Amino acid sequence: MSNIRTAVVGLNMGLDHAHAYKMAERSELAWVVDLDESKAARVAEQLGCRYATDWTAILDDVDAVSLCTPHHLHAPQALTAIAAGKHVLLEKPLANSERDCLDVIEAAERNGVTLMLAFVVRYLPAIRKLKEAIDSGRYGVPISAQGWVEAFLEPMPGTWFASKEKLGGGVLFSHGCHYIDILLYLLGEPARVSHFGTRVGTDWMEGEGTSHGIIEFKSGALAHLISSWGLKYKKTPARYQIHLTEGMLQLNNDMWTVEAVTKDGTETLYQRPPEYPARPGQNVLFEIEHFLDCIATGNRPETDGREILKSHRTIWAMYGSPGVPVRL
Ligand SMILES: NC(=O)c1ccc[n+]([C@@H]2O[C@H](COP(=O)([O-])OP(=O)(O)OC[C@H]3O[C@@H](n4cnc5c(N)ncnc54)[C@H](O)[C@@H]3O)[C@@H](O)[C@H]2O)c1
What we know:
The protein has helices at 14-23, 37-47, 74-83, 98-111, 125-136, 164-167, 171-174, 176-187, 282-297, 305-320, and strands at 4-9, 27-33, 50-52, 64-67, 87-91, 115-118, 142-150, 190-198, 210-217, 222-228, 240-244, 247-251, 258-262, 265-270. Helix content is 33%, strand content 25%. The protein is of the alpha/beta class. The strands form two sheets. The protein has an eight-stranded mixed beta sheet, covered by helices on one side. A six-stranded parallel beta sheet has the order 3-2-1-4-5-6, with helices on both faces. Helix 3 links the parallel strand 4 and strand 5. The chain has two domains: 4-121, Rossmann fold (3-Layer(aba) Sandwich), CATH 3.40.50; 122-278 and 312-320, Dihydrodipicolinate Reductase, domain 2 (2-Layer Sandwich). It starts with a strand and ends in an 8-residue tail after the last helix. The longest helix has 16 residues, at 282-297. Helix 8 (176-187) packs across helix 10 (305-320). Bound molecules: nicotinamide-adenine-dinucleotide. Nicotinamide-adenine-dinucleotide binds at residues 9-13, 33-36, 39, 55, 68-71, 73, 91-92, 120, 174. Residues 9-13, 33-36, 39, 55, 68-71, 73, 91-92, 120, 174 line the site of nicotinamide-adenine-dinucleotide. Residues 127-249 form the GFO/IDH/MocA-like oxidoreductase domain. This is Gfo/Idh/MocA family oxidoreductase.
């Protein structure tokens, strides 16, 4: 198969996709698109491709498109690209409602195109190592997982981030979705969930800016995830700590280092190797290569629509179940 002609729509997060397509051997980055023409022109010049402001006008000239646009545009844009027979790498989340998610999934299945969700964290080598370590049984059985997704966003009142409808919820849906997906990937099927969210410290947002979610898995293991866009001052312990009967596995905040604590002390299981330097596009290169590989082979992407719908449904269940409140 000749190189896959690619385009990226939306050049904030999409800038990383564009860099990764430029690096990936199977891809020829043909177009970058943004409503902001000067941004699109700048990126096109930097990466040696063409630019446009109307993404529908360049669809005929590409095989695959990354959609890196605000959440409320995901479903309509994905449906347009799929109807044109294009393979789609869609930034997270899939869409803001279950119905819209299913419409996109079914359209991709009907049209025989690859639909992959850009769940970048799934494809990071350290996450693979964490899963391998848990699945090996060497550390026993998972008991309790904690995750911290602590960030501070400068207030953006009036933008799509501030709108609950356009964002699809609050920080849990928008940013926490990566980390709920990883908890399901690592610990299996959820059985029960509960959730509290608050707008304290993030009252520019309509949805919750800080979220505490709990999952009980079918295995009996428990997980607690804190996600926030309102925490200015922090000393976050790790991204995840997973306690098992014979050890504790930790993914550091750098998202590259995995450590195991056991009776023998602390062992580093994975560290960033020199072949993956810190450079624009490196983190998304793993998912972009998987996307291109699935297009070339016809294989199902690991994070296809149906897989990602599982973690979206978990979040919607959390939103529908604000803890089991006991009034004090
Ligand atoms: N995986 C991650 O770690 C990560 C991080 C940040 C954002 N994202 C995701 O990336 C997507 C975009 O988020 P963002 O933070 O970059 O948003 P943003 O609002 O900062 O940037 C969106 C860009 O898309 C452009 N745009 C909007 N509508 C367009 C259209 N119809 N045609 C062409 N360009 C259009 C805007 O001009 C802007 O440059 C979201 O789905 C978000 O969740 C993922």
